[in-house]
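Weekly sync, protein design subgroup
Attendees: M.S., D.O., the rotation student, P.L. (late)

Item 1: inverse folding check
M.S. brought a backbone from last month's batch and wanted to see whether the design step gives back something sensible before we order anything. D.O. pointed out we never logged the input encoding, so this time it goes straight into the notes. Structure tokens as presented (207 positions):
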């Protein structure tokens, strides 16, 4: 949290020296995929379960505000976004080999990316760090006390992508988001990825 606050302070101190500052609103959707190296076996009491990631992508949305400060062809764009993400896992009882049950978790987060980019006419290329703070706690993966997951309260990643500005008001962004530290949370002694890789598509309006 201290690193993020220092970064945001530096950004807002630098804003007055920029030639032009615009305020905007944005909304968008994301598709994510979680990472696990292999299926894992874990015990809850005397019962053993096989834990694996569910196949297929999960979806979420994000919405919030941004500032864009321009200086020549360069710009810096801090954002504050409310975002939802979901992870899905499958559980199978090892002893009975029953059909897998799927457990889904939804995360509510405050995402704070700080993008630095360059403009080529209406086209933009940008990249930067993003910090995420959990809002509340996700539902437990399974209703067993010793299968409780412990999630980091704050995680860090990066975003990079392309943007397009239309009519000096409308802005469209396609970004890829990755983690700066893999497997930042645990389920017992099993590392889980609560910051999955994601593709984000958003539309914004600048004032």
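Designed sequence read out in the meeting:
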């Amino acid at each position: 949290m201290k690193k993020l606050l220092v970064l945001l302070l530096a950004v807002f101190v630098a804003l007055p020296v920029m030639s032009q500052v615009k305020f905007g609103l944005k909304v968008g959707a994301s598709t994510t995929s979680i990472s696990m190296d292999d299926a894992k076996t874990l015990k809850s009491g005397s019962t053993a379960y096989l834990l694996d990631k569910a196949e297929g992508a999960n979806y979420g949305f994000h919405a919030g505000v941004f500032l864009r400060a321009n200086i020549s062809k360069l710009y810096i764009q801090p954002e504050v976004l409310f975002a939802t993400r979901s992870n899905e896992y499958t559980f199978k009882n090892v002893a009975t080999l029953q059909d897998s049950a799927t457990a889904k978790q939804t995360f509510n987060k405050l995402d704070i990316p700080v993008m630095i980019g360059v403009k080529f006419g209406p086209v933009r290329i940008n990249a930067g760090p993003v910090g995420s703070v959990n809002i509340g706690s996700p539902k437990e993966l399974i209703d067993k006390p010793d299968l409780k997951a412990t999630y980091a309260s704050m995680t860090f990643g990066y975003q990079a992508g392309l943007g397009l500005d239309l009519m000096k008001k409308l802005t469209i962004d396609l970004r890829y988001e990755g983690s700066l530290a893999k497997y930042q949370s645990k389920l017992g002694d099993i590392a889980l990825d609560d910051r999955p890789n994601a593709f984000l598509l958003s539309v914004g309006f600048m004032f």
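Discussion: The CA atoms of residues 14 and 151 lie 34 Å apart. The longest helix spans residues 2-14.
Action: P.L. to compare against the previous round before Friday.
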